[in-house]
Design brief:
Order of helices and strands: HHEHEHEEHEEEEEEEEEEEEE
Oligomer: single chain
CATH architecture of one domain: 3-Layer(aba) Sandwich
Strand content: 35-45%
Shape: globular
Distance between the termini: 81 Å
Length: about 260
């Protein structure tokens, strides 16, 4: 009987000790923070091009080669038609120039075409795009970025999700609408005009203003942004995509691209 009493007493003592010991562990010590995995950087090339630019098809060939090598999982190109060699169109030919393209060209102080901004680290001649893009791919990004876009009854609904992976990001979120497979005239390097030239990743419009919206995300935090936009009825929905990117004074920090889902 005394042995049973001793066993019960011993068990009670052990439980009391464990409960008491737990009270000495602070809440901060119980939770171990795990830093998010580094995010892979998507590289954005803003290709300032024009239908009256005879060397611009050479830049397009470089983009096509890079896309074959890396795909949209690492490299995004956007053709921005603006500047003196862009074409606004006439009664005979469609023009791809946009007000946004002209404003961007002027803002960056560009002087010739084709020229590109690789993650907005200054103007780069098309012959040097590949080297700059490959270098940018090696740099981790401070956030992950995904987008979803749905076209329903003529209205485009866009959702952008961001996950902070390194420190605090403060900048702007920009969302663009781009279109592929546009048949329109293009002046060619060998001379003459190709009226059946296929233009891809053409900037059609900005979905949230010329410079986007203020955007912040902290490390470990998830942030969602929702936008709506009415695309031009002349654009072909099956060829439209959304390009979203976050940038600040350090350049483009992360980018993403997604095709539209067409509901009706």
């Amino acid at each position: 009987m005394s042995g049973n009493k001793f066993s019960i007493f011993s068990l009670f003592t052990i439980i009391l000790y464990l409960l008491t010991a737990c009270s000495y562990i602070s809440e901060e010590e119980r939770l171990i923070y795990v830093k998010p995995e580094p995010a892979k950087r998507m590289v954005l090339l803003e290709d300032f091009t024009g239908q009256k630019c005879v060397n611009c098809p050479k830049g397009t060939k470089i983009i096509e080669e890079l896309q074959k090598t890396y795909g949209d999982s690492a490299f995004i190109a956007v053709g921005i038609h603006g500047g003196p060699l862009s074409f606004a169109g006439n009664a005979k030919y469609e023009g791809l120039s946009t007000d946004e393209g002209n404003k961007y060209f002027e803002h960056w102080g560009l002087e010739y075409q084709p020229v590109g901004l690789v993650n907005r680290h200054g103007a780069v001649n098309y012959t040097d795009w590949a080297a700059h893009i490959i270098e940018e791919m090696t740099r981790p990004a401070p956030l992950e970025l995904t987008a979803d876009a749905t076209l329903d009854k003529g209205q485009l609904s866009i959702i952008v999700n961001a996950h902070g992976t390194d420190g605090t990001v403060e900048g702007k979120l920009q969302v663009w609408v781009v279109e592929d497979s546009i048949t329109a005239m293009q002046m060619m390097p060998e001379g003459g005009v190709n009226t059946d030239y296929i233009h891809n990743h053409v900037l059609r419009a900005t979905a949230n203003g010329l410079w986007g919206d203020d955007f912040n995300v902290n490390e470990g935090e998830w942030v969602e942004k929702q936008l709506t936009f009415l695309p031009d009825a002349a654009w072909k929905p099956e060829h439209l995509s959304i390009v979203a990117f976050v940038y600040n004074t350090e350049g483009v920090l992360q980018a993403t691209k997604t095709k539209l889902r067409i509901e009706s």
